[in-house]
Amino acid sequence: MADYDYDLFTIGAGSGGVRASRVAAAHGARVAVAEEHRVGGTCVIRGCVPKKMLVYGAHFAEDLEDATHFGWEISGCTFDWKKLRDNVLSDVDRLNGLYTQTLENNNVEIYHQRATITGPNEVTLASGEKKTARYILIATGARPHVPSCPGHEHGITSNEAFHLDAIPRRVLIAGAGYIANEFAGIFHQFGAKVTLMNRSDQLLRGYDESVRDRLLQISLTKGIDFRFNAAFEKIEKQEDGSMLVFMSNHEPLAVDSVLFATGRVPNIEGLGLESAGVRLTDRGAIEVDENSRTNVPSIYAVGDVTDRVQLTPVAIREGQAFADTLFGNKPTTVDYSCIPSAVFSHPPIAGVGLTEAQATQKFGSVKVYTSDFRPMKNVVAHRNERSLYKMVCNVETEDPGIHMIGPDAPEIMQVAAVAVKAGLTKADFDATVAIHPTMSEEMVLLK
Predict the structure, then answer these.
(1) Which of 210, 342, 383, 436 has CB atoms 3.0–4.6 Å from 410's, for a disulfide?
(2) CA 131 from chain center: how many Å?
(3) What Cα–Cα distance (Å) separates residue 65 from each residue in 47, 56, 83, 364, 394?
(4) What is the three-class DSSP state of 137?
(5) Alpha-carbon gap, residue 281 to 286, rounded angstroms
(6) Phi and psi for 159 in degrees, rounded to 5?
(7) Are 161 and 260 within 8 A, CB to CB?
(8) In terms of Cα–Cα distance, which of 81, 219, 90, 231 is closest to 161?
(9) 51-105, pLDDT tens digit by residue?
(10) Which of 272, 290, 342, 265 minimizes the C-alpha distance to 114?
(11) H or E element in which residue 11 lies
(12) Which residues pair with 73 in a beta bridge?
């Protein structure tokens, strides 16, 4: 066997890269990681984790309002964005340290600089130093897509949203995916006038239409505006620092901030993939097989850079499977069926399995069970917002897809996803005794 500096060299210390590196090292491999930013990746540093903390902060706006109906006298409440921002970023620092410590405790060598592939078994660091490895793993993730239009440099992405000096008074959010809807809820609850624009007339493609429609209805009721079938024409910076956004099919809109949430693209630029001969997909992602192997036998890729399923837990599963297969003598492939997901909108939505449209297309006819109800807390709080739980079943087997919108939907969905993954049927849900009074009991009372 050739003599290499390492058994594994990982480029990118995000969720997938850290898991793969840590597990490979635990199996006895000599491992190094190169990360040009901070250890932890998008999810920990500038994505899911700090975003969820902002979601928690945003929920207090309605919770404080609702508290008065439960007998609490609350006066003089003020919101300090900088305090929340700094507390969130402080916890990001803590997590960055923990992820770094995890790698170091497993004897993974960390290079805090960019690495480029310069051969099937060689990487070159930004310092010019070259390192060889039996295997190279690319785990560089994805970055926000920024539309190409005159004035696009005046906008920000979710990366910068966590570092704002103040909440913008008027914000335009471009996009209709989970990032757009999550930040729409966050900024709205923090007092901004939010307008969400999208090229099509749909929110959250891939989620069930019923819960998407319910989110749109609730968002409109809250005061969030929508501009559909709208594409950027130009963004003009005004003398007072505001922006005038020109878009197709609508009048220009004056705002104080433009947030681009128009999808994410794989981070492949400048990695040396062309020189190494690594093949890409039509969408510009790294092409891999079921074992995360590229067409170059010594080079692998996991996570968002492969554009299979852009979810942190999936990247972690891929990193674990990669390390177990190559270094743990435990051949493992990732099962991409029945992956649950959630949008931490306001209120949140969650789903697992086929939507009604997908099931109808696949099976022809389906059975649909629903519960459309007003949560008990909302009744006392005089809030008319309703939750919707939905189960879509194949007529013959009654194996379900489950979709919901309402308070704590993601928390409920995680357990429901276990039942769906295990192959339980509608009859199994019906046979389960309800926990009363809870919102989750509606899962076993669907009609």
Answers:
(1) 342
(2) 33
(3) 28, 15, 21, 46, 43
(4) strand
(5) 6
(6) -55, -45
(7) no
(8) 81
(9) 999 999 999 999 999 999 999 998 889 999 999 999 999 999 999 999 999 999 9
(10) 272
(11) strand 6-11
(12) none
Q: Which residues lie closer than 8 Å to 32 by C-beta, 6 or more apart?
A: 5, 6, 8, 9, 10, 108, 109, 110, 111, 131, 133
Q: Is 251 helix (H, G, I), strand (E, B) or coil?
A: coil
Strand order of the β-sheet with 341-343 is 341-343, 349-352, 400-405, 387-394, 366-373
Contacts of 372 (CB under 8 A, 6+ apart): 386, 387, 388
Nearest to 56 by CA among 419, 411, 430: 411
Residue 303 burial class via C-beta count within 10 angstroms: exposed 0-12, middle 13-18, buried 19 and up: buried
Whose tokens are 């008990």? That residue is 376
Distances in Å between the Cα of 376 and the Cα atoms of 55, 350, 371, 438 are 22, 20, 14, 8
Give residue 1's pLDDT band: very low, low, confident or very high (50, 70, 90): very low
Strands (E), 238-305: 243-247, 253-255, 257-260, 264-266, 299-301
Active site residues: 436
Distance CA 174, CA 257 (A): 11
Output the furthest CA–CA distance in the chain (Å, rounded): 74
- Give the Cα separation of 132 and 372 in Å (integer): 59
Q: Does the pLDDT value for residue 212 go beyond 80?
A: yes
Share of the chain above pLDDT 70, in %: 100
Nearest to 164 by CA among 241, 81, 92, 245: 81
- Cβ burial, residue 73 (10 Å; 0-12/13-18/19+): exposed
* C-alpha 23 chain-centroid distance: 24
Assign residue 151 a region (left: φ > 0; alpha: ψ between -120 and 50; beta: otherwise). Answer: left
Q: Is residue 427 over pLDDT 70?
A: yes
CB 372 within 8 Å of CB 388: yes
Half-sphere exposure of 410 (CA within 13 A, CB side): 10
Average pLDDT over residues 30-49: 95
Give 348-380 pLDDT, tens digit per residue. Answer: 999 999 999 999 999 999 999 999 999 999 999
Q: Which amino acid is at 371?
A: S
Which amino acid does the sequence have at 77?
Answer: C
Q: Which residues pair with 227 in a beta bridge?
A: 197
Q: What are the tokens at 194?
A: 């939010």
- Strand 387-394 relative to strand 400-405, pairing: antiparallel
User: So what's the pLDDT on residue 307?
Assistant: 86
